[in-house]
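User: Hi! I'm working on a homework problem where we have to compare a predicted structure to a textbook description. Could you give me the structure for the chain below?
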Amino acid sequence: MNNLIERLIAAHRMLNREIRRELAHRIPDHFRVVRLKKERLAVKDRLVRHLPDARDLRHAARRALSRMRMDGPALSRGRK
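Assistant: Happy to help. Predicted structure tokens:
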């Protein structure tokens, strides 16, 4: 899979986490939430340009997630 697509998927996931984290605050910064949502939409638009078929996007996201899990810290501890 294309490295750019993997980076875009990772950026989209990171923005989702940041949005959830900000909304979990007692008094969320709504301006920050709006900015993060705009950034997330821009990333999604770039993804759709590279993978116009939604099925391809879901498939690419699943592959990227499985790679991230395989390269995660839990598995890397056992490697020498």
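For your comparison, note the following. The first helix runs from residue 3 to 24. Confidence is low (pLDDT under 50) at residues 74-80. Good luck with the assignment!
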